[in-house]
Amino acid sequence: MSQLRLLPSRLGAQASRLLAPHDIQMFSRRSRSSGPPAPFPSSKRGGSSSYMEEMYFAWLENPQSVHKIRGHHVAQLDPLGILDADLDSFVPSDLITTIDKLAFYDLREADLDKEFQLPTTTFIGGSEHTLSLREIIRRLESTYCQHIGLEFMFINDVEQCQWIRQKFETPGVMQFSSEEKRTLLARLVRSMRFEDFLARKWSSEKRFGLEGCEVMIPALKTIIDKSSEMGIENVILGMPHRGRLNVLANVIRKDLEQIFCQFDPKLEAADEGSGDVKYHLGMYHERINRVTNRNITLSLVANPSHLEAVDPVVQGKTKAEQFYRGDAQGKKVMSILVHGDAAFAGQGVVYETFHLSDLPSYTTNGTVHVVVNNQIGFTTDPRMARSSPYPTDVARVVNAPIFHVNADDPEAVIYVCSVAAEWRNTFNKDVVVDLVCYRRRGHNEMDEPMFTQPLMYKQIHRQVPVLKKYADKLIAEGTVTLQEFEEEIAKYDRICEEAYGRSKDKKILHIKHWLDSPWPGFFNVDGEPKSMTCPATGIPEDVLTHIGEVASSVPLKDFKIHTGLSRILRGRADMIKNRTVDWALAEYMAFGSLLKEGIHVRLSGQDVERGTFSHRHHVLHDQEVDRRTCVPMNHLWPDQAPYTVCNSSLSEYGVLGFELGYAMASPNALVLWEAQFGDFHNTAQCIIDQFISTGQAKWVRHNGIVLLLPHGMEGMGPEHSSARPERFLQMSNDDSDAYPVFTEDFEVSQLYDCNWIVVNCSTPANYFHVLRRQVLLPFRKPLIIFTPKSLLRHPEAKSSFDQMVSGASFQRVIPEDGAAAQAPEQVRRLIFCTGKVYYDLVKERSSQGLEEQVAITRLEQISPFPFDLIKQEAEKYPGAELVWCQEEHKNMGYYDYISPRFMTILSRARPIWYVGRDPAAAPATGNRNTHLVSLKKFLDTAFNLQAFEGKTF
Ligand SMILES: Cc1ncc(C[n+]2csc(CCOP(=O)(O)OP(=O)(O)O)c2C)c(N)n1
Ligand SMILES: [Mg+2]
């Protein structure tokens, strides 16, 4: 069987797998119109019919073949020449790979030299309208079957497909000036010599070098250059460990000595907190782009080891930067995400992030994704790491084109990258560049890869580095001389050596020099808060009234709302007349008052617009006009800050990460994420553990994100009851055993020192104050709020304007203020509690007539623990037994957190008895009756004044 050897390369064996372009064209036609495609003039078997048309009719007969006949399947993507990038060596039977297959289309060998008419939808002809079949095959082959493999046939938009075809099919598109080639070579020199330098100086240090994918540096630089040329001024990058130091050095241009300092084991950071390993730190840099001569700000977002976790964070930060600049189309700010092949395919958050890409309140108008596809994940082969052909298949769900490229062909790489940047700028959609490369060393520099991939690594050891290959090519073609090349290397080596020398003089390290999101003007020049006072959070009554009136109205004319909603709004109006608020109104007033003060508020999460419990109704829907909505919160004052409230996709990990990133961009915003039920936050646990709880300690980065976590035991079963307060409290960093020094600014300094604030408010007013305090504080801390469900409508859970007007403020503890407080020495028991159980306790106390004997005090701010106020309360009731009462099971809730702190503040002189549900595995019962029985049981104990008699502690 003779083969169609049209190219001299080893591609020849698979020559003329050329149907991809037609295939794409046909696919596009088909999916665009429901009827048959426009008829072609010739008959299927007619001797004069064009080859293109034959292909077309063939496709019509067998549309299934469309999925098989793709050029990228046979492109030479692996620099090692071992693997098929799509994990499969399968060649579709209807591809013309050999001469005998010509017959499949009624063609013979002699037809190869016949001229054929080119359809208008192909660009391979350039200015020519006819070509010989041999030339057609050659051109298609060189476009689709060499070092670039294109996947875009699934995109159901003709214009977009045509755009891509034109970019790749047009003859001569991939030609570079000698200046461009020299720049590319110089960038490769930097990339390669940087790793070599680190390897020489710190041979036994982990650095997750880029060797085998050095081309990533010119790749990223090309994307940035091209984007800058098209107007981008701010690029936000997220990337994992591999090549990160190189990116910092050669893309972001972090000072080399600062990078080298990080290798010095003796240098400790001067900043507070744990710090982080060098390949996790972030960076922010404003500079001039040398190619375009324009200003550009580059930031690399700090990230944890948890692969891909940073993706939504980068997107959120990008969205926020676009928002603050009024860059609705993403023409000024863009994101680039770098991925590893195994992580891209394996981590679900990648999928969650892709699904945000086209949602109005979450889109960043297109992200350029770059995959470092070294065909291995730690020690795991791709065949064991994914079930999809390519590691990039996840991107297909959003119709992102995917450009696979052999990373040992630097010119192909930078061409693809420049098209990717143009694509993003043209269509504002995501695009993926898959750099098919290898990993020259083990997973890290200490690892032995031959244990597990012996044959692959034998080949890798034989592999000539890309820099040498490319330099040889340019020297051979006369673009550079050997001497120039060597000088370029020597020049960069000298830069590294000099920086190394300077790094040895450094006496001190500052993690704050690695900040990815500086907040100009927010802190003083030393990076400290401008004051250390807790602001007043109450507001004038007329502002409360005004917000309340808007919250009870429909600001748009001729807007018909649901009658049930009219009732709710009337109820609001009545409350405002009575100077009272419920939960929803308190939230309205907190948001509205901040908007008045120029603070942007953004509330995101599943079904937040209405509110899971149908209490919020921040978006009104016209009952007669489809999609006509009104957000009264944006009709408060003409010069107010904008309010965004958005129902999110059904994701916690992705969306919470996004909001965290959004909150990172500016301190002058209140950014809230609400879980549908608090229970579901654990699918975002990685964002909570790796970013929210620890972000400041690792990266000296403040963040004021607010988590609203509906919580409460209400007989709704194990998965709709608990936001797991115990977990947040266990991660709180205030010391349970250290007896505090009560300085004048204890309240605020405690907040400043903590890693996050955990509250459970029992009144709407306190919820209002804590939201306002969050933004008015002179620093930022994450705020975790356990929010109520039944209390949203509880007749007792209302607050008066008096508790919210100027002069009022957040109460960390709400002391007993009833009969017991009038004669405290008579009180036999002081019950401390938090949240909704307070109302159960008050009801039970009243029914047992124990108002004078039992005091009930509420802990509203649980962490940092209000030692000062708890001390005061306990001392006020010297003869009372102290009880902690919670509705959660004993091994959950707050008890394990509060108990040692009570012991500390009571100097272990008085016990704090536990009353609540017994320890359990599940957070709540699924049986309503069991729920009520256990509630009654612990309430009985709470008011059984003999319950602890004779017990020792
Ligand atoms: C979520 C998560 N799981 C596991 C790991 C441990 N881990 C670190 S690197 C790595 C392999 C990553 O492979 P790939 O994404 O292909 O990147 P490469 O190291 O090959 O560049 C693994 C499993 C991790 N860092 N994060
Ligand atoms: Mg890999």
From TrEMBL:
Top-level division of the source organism's lineage: Eukaryota
Reactions it catalyzes: N(6)-[(R)-lipoyl]-L-lysyl-[protein] + 2-oxoglutarate + H(+) = N(6)-[(R)-S(8)-succinyldihydrolipoyl]-L-lysyl-[protein] + CO2
Record-level GO cellular component terms: mitochondrial matrix; oxoglutarate dehydrogenase complex
Annotated CDD domains: TPP_E1_OGDC_like
Keywords (A to Z) from UniProt: Calcium, Glycolysis, Magnesium, Metal-binding, Mitochondrion, Oxidoreductase, Thiamine pyrophosphate, Transit peptide
Enzyme class: oxidoreductase
Start and end residues of each stretch annotated as Disordered: 28-48
Limits of the Transketolase-like pyrimidine-binding domain: 581-794
Cited InterPro entries: 2-oxogl_dehyd_N, 2oxoglutarate_DH_E1, DH_E1, KGD_C_sf, ODO-1/KGD_C, THDP-binding, Transketolase-like_Pyr-bd
EC number: 1.2.4.2
GO molecular function, one term: thiamine pyrophosphate binding
UniProt-annotated location(s): Mitochondrion matrix
Pfam families for the chain: 2-oxogl_dehyd_N (PF16078), E1_dh (PF00676), OxoGdeHyase_C (PF16870), Transket_pyr (PF02779)
Cited function: 2-oxoglutarate dehydrogenase (E1-like) component of the 2-oxoglutarate dehydrogenase multienzyme complex (OGDHC) which mediates the decarboxylation of alpha-ketoglutarate in the tricarboxylic acid cycle. The OGDHC complex catalyzes the overall conversion of 2-oxoglutarate to succinyl-CoA and CO(2) while reducing NAD(+) to NADH. The OGDHC complex is mainly active in the mitochondrion. Involved in the inhibition of cell proliferation and in apoptosis.
Family: Belongs to the alpha-ketoglutarate dehydrogenase family.
Name of the protein in its database record: 2-oxoglutarate dehydrogenase-like, mitochondrial
Protein species of origin: Panthera leo
Taxonomy of the source species: Eukaryota, Metazoa, Chordata, Craniata, Vertebrata
